[in-house]
Amino acid sequence: MVKMRMAISLSARKFSTFASHPMRVCVVGSGPAGFYTAEKLLKTHEGAQVDIIDRLPTPFGLVRSGVAPDHQETKVVVNQFSRVAVSERCSFFGNVCLGTSVSLSELRDLYHVVVLSFGAESDRVLGIPGEDLKGIYAAREFVWWYNGHPDCRKLSPVLKSTDSAVILGQGNVALDIARILLRPTSELSTTDIASHALEALEESSIRKVYLVGRRGPVQAACTAKELREVLGIKNLYVNIQKDDLRVTPTDEVEMKNSRINRRIYELLSKAAQSGTQSAAPGQRELHFVFFRKPESFLASNVGGSKVVGVKLEKTMLNQRDGPGKQIAVGTGEYAHIDSGMVLKSIGYKSIPVDGLPFDHRKGVVPNIKGRVLGNNVDGSPHPQPGLYVCGWLKRGPTGIIATNLYCAEETVASITEDLEQGSLPSPLKLPKPGREGLSQLLKSRNVRLVPFSGWEKIDAEERRLGSLKNKPREKLASWEELLEIANQ
Protein backbone atom coordinates (compact mmCIF):
# COMPACT_ATOMS: atom_id res chain seq x y z
CA MET A 1 0.00 0.00 0.00
CA VAL A 2 2.86 2.40 0.88
CA LYS A 3 4.61 1.61 -2.41
CA MET A 4 1.36 2.25 -4.32
CA ARG A 5 0.89 5.64 -2.65
CA MET A 6 4.49 6.58 -3.40
CA ALA A 7 4.00 5.58 -7.05
CA ILE A 8 0.88 7.72 -7.36
CA SER A 9 2.65 10.64 -5.69
CA LEU A 10 5.60 10.32 -8.09
CA SER A 11 3.22 10.13 -11.04
CA ALA A 12 1.44 13.28 -9.91
CA ARG A 13 4.74 15.16 -9.74
CA LYS A 14 6.06 13.68 -12.96
CA PHE A 15 3.01 14.63 -14.99
CA SER A 16 2.32 17.97 -13.31
CA THR A 17 3.15 19.77 -16.54
CA PHE A 18 3.49 23.48 -17.19
CA ALA A 19 0.23 25.38 -17.41
CA SER A 20 0.84 26.02 -21.11
CA HIS A 21 1.21 22.29 -21.85
CA PRO A 22 -1.18 20.34 -19.62
CA MET A 23 -2.19 16.74 -20.22
CA ARG A 24 -5.49 17.04 -22.08
CA VAL A 25 -8.10 14.39 -21.31
CA CYS A 26 -11.60 14.00 -22.73
CA VAL A 27 -14.13 11.79 -20.94
CA VAL A 28 -17.14 10.89 -23.08
CA GLY A 29 -20.18 10.31 -20.87
CA SER A 30 -21.11 12.08 -17.65
CA GLY A 31 -22.56 9.21 -15.67
CA PRO A 32 -20.90 7.68 -12.59
CA ALA A 33 -18.15 5.99 -14.65
CA GLY A 34 -17.30 9.28 -16.36
CA PHE A 35 -17.27 11.40 -13.21
CA TYR A 36 -15.31 8.86 -11.15
CA THR A 37 -12.74 8.71 -13.96
CA ALA A 38 -12.50 12.51 -14.08
CA GLU A 39 -12.14 12.72 -10.30
CA LYS A 40 -9.37 10.10 -10.19
CA LEU A 41 -7.50 11.74 -13.06
CA LEU A 42 -7.61 15.18 -11.46
CA LYS A 43 -6.31 13.80 -8.16
CA THR A 44 -3.61 11.62 -9.69
CA HIS A 45 -2.27 14.07 -12.29
CA GLU A 46 -1.93 17.58 -10.94
CA GLY A 47 -1.39 19.15 -14.36
CA ALA A 48 -4.22 17.43 -16.16
CA GLN A 49 -7.19 19.22 -17.70
CA VAL A 50 -10.27 17.03 -17.99
CA ASP A 51 -13.27 17.77 -20.19
CA ILE A 52 -16.47 15.74 -19.87
CA ILE A 53 -18.83 15.64 -22.84
CA ASP A 54 -22.36 14.25 -22.93
CA ARG A 55 -25.04 14.13 -25.60
CA LEU A 56 -27.65 15.31 -23.07
CA PRO A 57 -27.86 18.88 -21.74
CA THR A 58 -27.91 17.33 -18.25
CA PRO A 59 -25.06 15.50 -16.48
CA PHE A 60 -25.02 12.45 -14.18
CA GLY A 61 -26.29 9.76 -16.58
CA LEU A 62 -28.22 6.95 -14.90
CA VAL A 63 -28.16 8.70 -11.52
CA ARG A 64 -30.66 11.11 -13.08
CA SER A 65 -32.40 8.89 -15.63
CA GLY A 66 -32.02 5.39 -14.18
CA VAL A 67 -32.26 5.55 -10.38
CA ALA A 68 -35.89 5.23 -9.28
CA PRO A 69 -37.57 8.48 -8.17
CA ASP A 70 -38.32 7.04 -4.71
CA HIS A 71 -34.60 6.37 -4.14
CA GLN A 72 -33.53 9.92 -3.42
CA GLU A 73 -30.78 8.82 -1.03
CA THR A 74 -28.97 7.10 -3.92
CA LYS A 75 -28.88 10.37 -5.87
CA VAL A 76 -26.84 12.20 -3.23
CA VAL A 77 -23.72 11.14 -5.12
CA VAL A 78 -24.38 13.99 -7.60
CA ASN A 79 -23.07 16.39 -4.95
CA GLN A 80 -19.67 14.69 -5.20
CA PHE A 81 -19.81 14.79 -9.00
CA SER A 82 -20.74 18.48 -8.97
CA ARG A 83 -17.62 19.31 -6.96
CA VAL A 84 -15.59 17.64 -9.71
CA ALA A 85 -17.39 19.56 -12.46
CA VAL A 86 -16.75 23.00 -10.92
CA SER A 87 -13.01 22.38 -10.56
CA GLU A 88 -11.01 24.93 -12.56
CA ARG A 89 -9.28 22.03 -14.30
CA CYS A 90 -12.56 20.40 -15.37
CA SER A 91 -15.20 21.46 -17.91
CA PHE A 92 -18.58 20.00 -18.84
CA PHE A 93 -19.75 20.08 -22.46
CA GLY A 94 -23.44 19.15 -22.56
CA ASN A 95 -25.52 18.64 -25.72
CA VAL A 96 -22.44 17.32 -27.54
CA CYS A 97 -23.05 14.03 -29.36
CA LEU A 98 -20.14 11.76 -30.22
CA GLY A 99 -20.43 10.86 -33.90
CA THR A 100 -22.61 13.86 -34.76
CA SER A 101 -21.23 16.94 -33.04
CA VAL A 102 -17.67 15.58 -33.07
CA SER A 103 -16.08 12.34 -34.26
CA LEU A 104 -13.91 9.99 -32.25
CA SER A 105 -10.93 10.63 -34.54
CA GLU A 106 -11.32 14.39 -33.98
CA LEU A 107 -11.32 13.91 -30.21
CA ARG A 108 -8.18 11.79 -30.43
CA ASP A 109 -6.50 14.59 -32.41
CA LEU A 110 -7.57 17.21 -29.84
CA TYR A 111 -6.66 15.27 -26.67
CA HIS A 112 -3.79 13.18 -25.36
CA VAL A 113 -6.24 10.78 -23.71
CA VAL A 114 -9.86 9.91 -24.58
CA VAL A 115 -11.87 7.79 -22.12
CA LEU A 116 -15.20 6.45 -23.37
CA SER A 117 -17.72 5.90 -20.59
CA PHE A 118 -21.07 6.61 -22.24
CA GLY A 119 -22.80 3.50 -20.95
CA ALA A 120 -25.52 1.54 -22.73
CA GLU A 121 -28.28 3.33 -24.61
CA SER A 122 -29.92 0.41 -26.39
CA ASP A 123 -31.54 -2.86 -25.35
CA ARG A 124 -31.02 -6.57 -25.70
CA VAL A 125 -33.63 -8.41 -27.72
CA LEU A 126 -35.21 -11.80 -27.10
CA GLY A 127 -35.53 -12.69 -30.77
CA ILE A 128 -38.90 -14.44 -30.36
CA PRO A 129 -42.13 -14.10 -32.37
CA GLY A 130 -44.26 -11.02 -31.71
CA GLU A 131 -41.53 -8.91 -30.14
CA ASP A 132 -42.53 -5.86 -32.22
CA LEU A 133 -46.19 -5.85 -31.10
CA LYS A 134 -47.65 -2.68 -29.60
CA GLY A 135 -47.70 -2.67 -25.81
CA ILE A 136 -44.23 -4.27 -25.50
CA TYR A 137 -41.52 -1.98 -24.11
CA ALA A 138 -37.89 -2.23 -23.14
CA ALA A 139 -37.34 -1.57 -19.43
CA ARG A 140 -34.91 1.21 -20.37
CA GLU A 141 -37.65 3.08 -22.26
CA PHE A 142 -40.10 2.83 -19.38
CA VAL A 143 -37.51 3.84 -16.78
CA TRP A 144 -36.44 6.82 -18.91
CA TRP A 145 -40.11 7.74 -19.34
CA TYR A 146 -40.92 7.96 -15.61
CA ASN A 147 -37.55 9.61 -14.88
CA GLY A 148 -38.08 12.43 -17.37
CA HIS A 149 -35.43 11.53 -19.96
CA PRO A 150 -36.12 13.73 -23.01
CA ASP A 151 -35.78 10.82 -25.46
CA CYS A 152 -38.79 9.01 -23.92
CA ARG A 153 -41.04 11.95 -23.02
CA LYS A 154 -43.66 10.80 -25.56
CA LEU A 155 -43.60 7.07 -24.86
CA SER A 156 -47.28 6.89 -23.71
CA PRO A 157 -47.35 3.33 -22.30
CA VAL A 158 -50.72 1.53 -22.42
CA LEU A 159 -51.53 1.86 -18.72
CA LYS A 160 -55.28 2.46 -19.15
CA SER A 161 -56.21 -0.33 -21.56
CA THR A 162 -55.16 -3.34 -19.48
CA ASP A 163 -55.36 -4.39 -15.83
CA SER A 164 -52.12 -6.40 -15.84
CA ALA A 165 -48.47 -6.03 -16.78
CA VAL A 166 -45.87 -8.74 -17.35
CA ILE A 167 -42.26 -7.92 -16.53
CA LEU A 168 -39.72 -10.31 -18.02
CA GLY A 169 -36.83 -10.38 -15.60
CA GLN A 170 -36.39 -10.33 -11.82
CA GLY A 171 -33.41 -8.02 -11.36
CA ASN A 172 -33.38 -4.66 -9.59
CA VAL A 173 -34.66 -2.76 -12.64
CA ALA A 174 -37.60 -5.16 -12.94
CA LEU A 175 -38.40 -4.65 -9.25
CA ASP A 176 -38.14 -0.87 -9.65
CA ILE A 177 -40.70 -0.97 -12.44
CA ALA A 178 -43.03 -3.24 -10.46
CA ARG A 179 -42.82 -0.87 -7.51
CA ILE A 180 -43.59 2.18 -9.66
CA LEU A 181 -46.61 0.42 -11.18
CA LEU A 182 -47.98 -0.83 -7.84
CA ARG A 183 -47.04 1.82 -5.30
CA PRO A 184 -49.75 4.39 -4.40
CA THR A 185 -49.30 7.53 -6.50
CA SER A 186 -49.84 9.62 -3.36
CA GLU A 187 -46.42 8.34 -2.22
CA LEU A 188 -44.79 8.89 -5.61
CA SER A 189 -46.09 12.45 -5.81
CA THR A 190 -43.45 13.68 -3.34
CA THR A 191 -40.56 12.22 -5.36
CA ASP A 192 -38.90 13.65 -8.47
CA ILE A 193 -40.92 11.41 -10.80
CA ALA A 194 -41.74 13.17 -14.08
CA SER A 195 -45.14 14.87 -14.01
CA HIS A 196 -46.30 13.25 -17.24
CA ALA A 197 -45.58 9.83 -15.71
CA LEU A 198 -47.30 10.63 -12.42
CA GLU A 199 -50.42 11.81 -14.26
CA ALA A 200 -50.50 8.63 -16.35
CA LEU A 201 -49.97 6.40 -13.31
CA GLU A 202 -52.81 8.16 -11.48
CA GLU A 203 -55.13 7.03 -14.29
CA SER A 204 -53.54 3.58 -14.65
CA SER A 205 -55.75 0.47 -14.72
CA ILE A 206 -52.84 -1.83 -13.83
CA ARG A 207 -53.73 -3.93 -10.78
CA LYS A 208 -51.66 -7.06 -11.38
CA VAL A 209 -47.95 -7.31 -12.08
CA TYR A 210 -46.22 -10.57 -12.99
CA LEU A 211 -42.44 -10.82 -12.47
CA VAL A 212 -41.22 -13.66 -14.67
CA GLY A 213 -37.85 -15.38 -14.21
CA ARG A 214 -36.19 -18.22 -16.11
CA ARG A 215 -34.71 -19.70 -12.94
CA GLY A 216 -35.86 -20.12 -9.35
CA PRO A 217 -36.04 -17.99 -6.20
CA VAL A 218 -32.49 -18.99 -5.20
CA GLN A 219 -31.15 -17.49 -8.44
CA ALA A 220 -33.24 -14.28 -8.48
CA ALA A 221 -30.94 -11.45 -9.63
CA CYS A 222 -32.23 -8.70 -7.34
CA THR A 223 -30.81 -7.40 -4.06
CA ALA A 224 -32.42 -7.84 -0.66
CA LYS A 225 -33.01 -4.10 -0.31
CA GLU A 226 -34.99 -3.90 -3.57
CA LEU A 227 -36.96 -7.03 -2.74
CA ARG A 228 -37.88 -5.79 0.75
CA GLU A 229 -39.14 -2.52 -0.75
CA VAL A 230 -41.47 -4.12 -3.25
CA LEU A 231 -42.73 -6.66 -0.71
CA GLY A 232 -43.38 -3.79 1.71
CA ILE A 233 -45.83 -1.89 -0.52
CA LYS A 234 -48.98 -1.06 1.44
CA ASN A 235 -51.99 -3.30 0.97
CA LEU A 236 -50.29 -5.48 -1.66
CA TYR A 237 -51.21 -9.10 -2.28
CA VAL A 238 -48.08 -11.16 -3.02
CA ASN A 239 -48.40 -14.52 -4.75
CA ILE A 240 -45.56 -17.07 -4.80
CA GLN A 241 -46.21 -20.71 -5.67
CA LYS A 242 -44.93 -22.80 -2.76
CA ASP A 243 -43.82 -25.54 -5.16
CA ASP A 244 -41.37 -23.04 -6.67
CA LEU A 245 -39.70 -22.69 -3.25
CA ARG A 246 -38.50 -26.28 -3.15
CA VAL A 247 -34.73 -26.39 -3.19
CA THR A 248 -32.33 -29.00 -4.55
CA PRO A 249 -28.95 -29.96 -3.10
CA THR A 250 -27.34 -27.74 -5.76
CA ASP A 251 -29.53 -24.84 -4.62
CA GLU A 252 -28.35 -25.46 -1.08
CA VAL A 253 -24.74 -25.18 -2.25
CA GLU A 254 -25.52 -21.88 -4.00
CA MET A 255 -27.08 -20.45 -0.85
CA LYS A 256 -24.20 -21.69 1.28
CA ASN A 257 -21.75 -19.91 -1.01
CA SER A 258 -23.76 -16.70 -1.36
CA ARG A 259 -25.24 -14.77 1.55
CA ILE A 260 -27.19 -12.62 -0.94
CA ASN A 261 -28.83 -15.64 -2.59
CA ARG A 262 -29.73 -17.08 0.80
CA ARG A 263 -31.26 -13.80 1.98
CA ILE A 264 -33.34 -13.43 -1.19
CA TYR A 265 -34.68 -16.95 -0.78
CA GLU A 266 -35.52 -16.32 2.89
CA LEU A 267 -37.43 -13.13 2.06
CA LEU A 268 -39.44 -14.85 -0.68
CA SER A 269 -40.19 -17.84 1.57
CA LYS A 270 -41.40 -15.57 4.34
CA ALA A 271 -43.62 -13.65 1.91
CA ALA A 272 -45.14 -16.89 0.63
CA GLN A 273 -45.87 -18.17 4.13
CA SER A 274 -47.36 -14.92 5.45
CA GLY A 275 -49.55 -14.19 2.44
CA THR A 276 -53.28 -14.91 2.12
CA GLN A 277 -54.74 -17.47 -0.28
CA SER A 278 -56.23 -14.86 -2.61
CA ALA A 279 -56.39 -11.12 -3.19
CA ALA A 280 -59.15 -9.03 -1.67
CA PRO A 281 -61.45 -7.10 -4.03
CA GLY A 282 -59.61 -4.06 -5.42
CA GLN A 283 -56.29 -5.11 -3.91
CA ARG A 284 -53.20 -4.73 -6.08
CA GLU A 285 -51.32 -7.93 -6.82
CA LEU A 286 -47.70 -8.93 -7.36
CA HIS A 287 -47.09 -12.41 -8.76
CA PHE A 288 -43.61 -13.99 -8.79
CA VAL A 289 -43.46 -16.47 -11.66
CA PHE A 290 -40.38 -18.70 -11.48
CA PHE A 291 -39.05 -21.36 -13.86
CA ARG A 292 -40.60 -19.83 -16.97
CA LYS A 293 -39.07 -18.35 -20.12
CA PRO A 294 -40.86 -16.44 -22.90
CA GLU A 295 -41.60 -18.46 -26.03
CA SER A 296 -43.62 -15.87 -27.97
CA PHE A 297 -45.87 -12.86 -27.59
CA LEU A 298 -49.54 -13.30 -28.35
CA ALA A 299 -51.31 -10.85 -30.65
CA SER A 300 -54.88 -9.60 -30.57
CA ASN A 301 -57.31 -11.05 -33.10
CA VAL A 302 -58.32 -7.61 -34.34
CA GLY A 303 -55.55 -6.40 -36.61
CA GLY A 304 -52.99 -8.52 -34.82
CA SER A 305 -50.83 -5.53 -33.86
CA LYS A 306 -51.31 -5.40 -30.09
CA VAL A 307 -49.96 -7.75 -27.46
CA VAL A 308 -52.56 -9.61 -25.40
CA GLY A 309 -50.36 -12.13 -23.62
CA VAL A 310 -47.10 -14.00 -23.29
CA LYS A 311 -46.60 -17.69 -24.04
CA LEU A 312 -44.17 -19.15 -21.51
CA GLU A 313 -42.23 -22.40 -21.51
CA LYS A 314 -41.65 -24.15 -18.21
CA THR A 315 -37.98 -24.60 -17.39
CA MET A 316 -35.80 -26.74 -15.18
CA LEU A 317 -32.30 -26.06 -13.92
CA ASN A 318 -29.35 -27.85 -15.42
CA GLN A 319 -25.85 -27.66 -13.96
CA ARG A 320 -23.71 -27.29 -17.08
CA ASP A 321 -21.08 -24.76 -16.09
CA GLY A 322 -19.81 -26.16 -12.81
CA PRO A 323 -20.98 -25.79 -9.19
CA GLY A 324 -23.30 -22.86 -8.61
CA LYS A 325 -23.77 -22.29 -12.35
CA GLN A 326 -27.23 -23.64 -13.00
CA ILE A 327 -28.89 -22.59 -16.23
CA ALA A 328 -32.54 -22.81 -17.28
CA VAL A 329 -33.50 -25.26 -20.02
CA GLY A 330 -36.92 -25.69 -21.57
CA THR A 331 -39.10 -28.69 -20.77
CA GLY A 332 -41.56 -28.44 -23.67
CA GLU A 333 -44.44 -27.62 -21.32
CA TYR A 334 -46.23 -24.32 -22.01
CA ALA A 335 -48.66 -21.89 -20.41
CA HIS A 336 -49.56 -18.25 -20.99
CA ILE A 337 -50.35 -15.08 -19.10
CA ASP A 338 -52.96 -12.66 -20.44
CA SER A 339 -51.69 -9.10 -20.46
CA GLY A 340 -51.90 -6.00 -22.65
CA MET A 341 -48.54 -4.65 -21.45
CA VAL A 342 -45.14 -6.33 -21.38
CA LEU A 343 -41.84 -4.89 -20.18
CA LYS A 344 -38.58 -6.61 -21.14
CA SER A 345 -36.10 -6.18 -18.31
CA ILE A 346 -33.46 -8.41 -19.90
CA GLY A 347 -30.51 -6.04 -19.98
CA TYR A 348 -29.15 -2.90 -21.57
CA LYS A 349 -26.90 -2.91 -24.63
CA SER A 350 -24.08 -0.56 -25.61
CA ILE A 351 -23.93 1.04 -29.06
CA PRO A 352 -20.79 0.90 -31.24
CA VAL A 353 -19.23 4.12 -32.55
CA ASP A 354 -17.41 4.69 -35.85
CA GLY A 355 -13.72 4.03 -35.43
CA LEU A 356 -14.18 2.05 -32.21
CA PRO A 357 -13.60 -1.73 -31.99
CA PHE A 358 -16.69 -3.48 -30.65
CA ASP A 359 -17.57 -6.99 -29.52
CA HIS A 360 -21.20 -7.31 -30.61
CA ARG A 361 -21.69 -10.64 -28.84
CA LYS A 362 -20.58 -9.33 -25.44
CA GLY A 363 -21.75 -5.76 -26.04
CA VAL A 364 -18.43 -4.26 -24.89
CA VAL A 365 -15.33 -2.62 -26.34
CA PRO A 366 -12.44 -5.12 -26.34
CA ASN A 367 -10.01 -3.94 -23.70
CA ILE A 368 -7.39 -4.91 -21.15
CA LYS A 369 -7.83 -3.04 -17.87
CA GLY A 370 -9.50 -0.20 -19.76
CA ARG A 371 -7.01 -0.03 -22.66
CA VAL A 372 -8.96 -0.29 -25.94
CA LEU A 373 -7.65 -3.09 -28.14
CA GLY A 374 -7.32 -2.88 -31.90
CA ASN A 375 -5.93 -5.50 -34.27
CA ASN A 376 -2.53 -5.69 -35.90
CA VAL A 377 -2.20 -6.65 -39.56
CA ASP A 378 -1.83 -10.29 -38.51
CA GLY A 379 -5.03 -10.08 -36.43
CA SER A 380 -3.35 -10.03 -33.04
CA PRO A 381 -4.75 -7.50 -30.54
CA HIS A 382 -2.82 -4.42 -29.44
CA PRO A 383 -3.70 -1.39 -27.26
CA GLN A 384 -4.70 1.76 -29.14
CA PRO A 385 -2.53 4.57 -27.71
CA GLY A 386 -4.50 7.19 -25.77
CA LEU A 387 -7.89 5.43 -26.06
CA TYR A 388 -9.55 3.90 -22.99
CA VAL A 389 -12.95 2.74 -21.73
CA CYS A 390 -14.68 2.70 -18.36
CA GLY A 391 -18.07 1.58 -17.06
CA TRP A 392 -20.55 -0.51 -19.04
CA LEU A 393 -18.61 -0.13 -22.30
CA LYS A 394 -15.69 -1.75 -20.53
CA ARG A 395 -17.30 -4.53 -18.50
CA GLY A 396 -20.91 -4.82 -19.69
CA PRO A 397 -24.14 -3.49 -18.08
CA THR A 398 -23.60 -4.87 -14.60
CA GLY A 399 -22.99 -3.61 -11.08
CA ILE A 400 -24.19 -0.71 -8.97
CA ILE A 401 -23.08 2.94 -8.93
CA ALA A 402 -20.13 2.20 -6.65
CA THR A 403 -18.89 -0.50 -9.04
CA ASN A 404 -17.88 2.31 -11.39
CA LEU A 405 -15.50 3.69 -8.76
CA TYR A 406 -13.31 0.59 -8.84
CA CYS A 407 -13.69 0.39 -12.61
CA ALA A 408 -12.44 4.00 -12.93
CA GLU A 409 -9.51 3.36 -10.60
CA GLU A 410 -8.33 0.53 -12.83
CA THR A 411 -8.62 2.58 -16.02
CA VAL A 412 -6.81 5.57 -14.50
CA ALA A 413 -4.08 3.23 -13.24
CA SER A 414 -3.63 2.02 -16.84
CA ILE A 415 -3.37 5.62 -18.08
CA THR A 416 -0.76 6.40 -15.42
CA GLU A 417 1.23 3.29 -16.27
CA ASP A 418 1.17 4.11 -19.99
CA LEU A 419 2.45 7.62 -19.30
CA GLU A 420 5.24 6.30 -17.11
CA GLN A 421 6.31 3.70 -19.66
CA GLY A 422 6.17 6.11 -22.60
CA SER A 423 3.25 4.45 -24.38
CA LEU A 424 1.67 7.91 -24.32
CA PRO A 425 3.73 10.92 -25.46
CA SER A 426 4.59 13.56 -22.88
CA PRO A 427 2.32 16.63 -23.09
CA LEU A 428 5.50 18.73 -23.09
CA LYS A 429 6.76 17.05 -26.27
CA LEU A 430 3.37 16.88 -27.98
CA PRO A 431 1.02 19.68 -26.81
CA LYS A 432 -2.62 19.38 -27.88
CA PRO A 433 -5.41 21.99 -28.08
CA GLY A 434 -7.91 20.18 -25.79
CA ARG A 435 -10.91 22.22 -24.67
CA GLU A 436 -9.96 25.33 -26.64
CA GLY A 437 -9.81 23.29 -29.83
CA LEU A 438 -13.06 21.48 -29.02
CA SER A 439 -14.84 24.76 -28.24
CA GLN A 440 -13.77 26.24 -31.58
CA LEU A 441 -14.83 23.11 -33.48
CA LEU A 442 -18.27 23.03 -31.85
CA LYS A 443 -18.76 26.75 -32.44
CA SER A 444 -17.94 26.32 -36.14
CA ARG A 445 -20.67 23.67 -36.33
CA ASN A 446 -23.25 25.78 -34.46
CA VAL A 447 -23.62 23.21 -31.67
CA ARG A 448 -25.74 24.62 -28.82
CA LEU A 449 -23.20 23.81 -26.14
CA VAL A 450 -24.48 23.54 -22.55
CA PRO A 451 -21.71 24.23 -20.00
CA PHE A 452 -22.04 23.22 -16.35
CA SER A 453 -23.37 26.71 -15.60
CA GLY A 454 -26.20 25.89 -18.04
CA TRP A 455 -26.96 22.74 -16.06
CA GLU A 456 -26.99 24.82 -12.87
CA LYS A 457 -29.74 26.97 -14.43
CA ILE A 458 -31.74 23.84 -15.25
CA ASP A 459 -31.14 22.52 -11.73
CA ALA A 460 -32.30 25.78 -10.12
CA GLU A 461 -35.44 25.92 -12.25
CA GLU A 462 -36.34 22.28 -11.55
CA ARG A 463 -35.89 22.81 -7.82
CA ARG A 464 -38.00 25.97 -7.94
CA LEU A 465 -40.82 24.20 -9.79
CA GLY A 466 -40.54 21.22 -7.44
CA SER A 467 -40.88 23.40 -4.33
CA LEU A 468 -44.30 24.49 -5.61
CA LYS A 469 -45.48 20.84 -5.51
CA ASN A 470 -43.62 19.57 -2.43
CA LYS A 471 -41.21 17.64 -4.65
CA PRO A 472 -37.38 17.61 -4.63
CA ARG A 473 -37.51 18.83 -8.23
CA GLU A 474 -39.90 19.04 -11.17
CA LYS A 475 -37.90 17.66 -14.08
CA LEU A 476 -37.83 19.47 -17.39
CA ALA A 477 -38.49 16.55 -19.70
CA SER A 478 -38.19 17.89 -23.24
CA TRP A 479 -35.15 18.89 -25.27
CA GLU A 480 -36.73 22.28 -25.99
CA GLU A 481 -37.32 23.11 -22.31
CA LEU A 482 -33.87 21.98 -21.25
CA LEU A 483 -32.02 23.93 -23.93
CA GLU A 484 -34.16 27.05 -23.43
CA ILE A 485 -33.45 27.23 -19.70
CA ALA A 486 -29.77 26.30 -20.09
CA ASN A 487 -29.17 29.07 -22.62
CA GLN A 488 -30.98 31.86 -20.76
From TrEMBL:
Please give the GO cellular component terms listed in this UniProt entry: mitochondrion
Q: Does the keyword Zinc apply?
A: no
Species name: Kalanchoe fedtschenkoi (Lavender scallops)
Fetch the InterPro entries from UniProt. FAD/NAD-bd_sf, FAD/NAD-binding_dom, Ferredox_Rdtase, Ferredox_Rdtase_adrenod
Name-wise, this protein is NADPH:adrenodoxin oxidoreductase, mitochondrial
All residue ranges annotated as the FAD/NAD(P)-binding domain in the record: 23-202
As recorded in UniProt, its EC number(s) are 1.18.1.6
GO terms for MF: flavin adenine dinucleotide binding; oxidoreductase activity, acting on iron-sulfur proteins as donors, NAD or NADP as acceptor
> Could you say which residues bind FAD here?
A33, L62, L98, W392, G399, I400, I401
In terms of Gene3D superfamilies, this protein maps to:
FAD/NAD(P)-binding domain (3.50.50.60), NAD(P)-binding Rossmann-like Domain (3.40.50.720)
Gene Ontology BP terms: electron transport chain
Q: Which family does it belong to?
A: Belongs to the ferredoxin--NADP reductase type 1 family.
> Where in the cell is the protein located?
Mitochondrion
Q: Can you tell me which residues bind NADP(+)?
A: Q170, G171, N172, V173, R214, R215, E226, G399
Q: Name one Pfam family in it.
A: Pyr_redox_2
Question: Which UniProt keywords are present, listed alphabetically?
Answer: FAD, Flavoprotein, Mitochondrion, NADP, Oxidoreductase
Catalysed conversion reaction: 2 reduced [adrenodoxin] + NADP(+) + H(+) = 2 oxidized [adrenodoxin] + NADPH
Top-level division of the source organism's lineage? Eukaryota
SUPFAM superfamilies named in the record: Nucleotide-binding domain
Q: Required cofactors, per record?
A: FAD
Q: What class of enzyme is it?
A: oxidoreductase
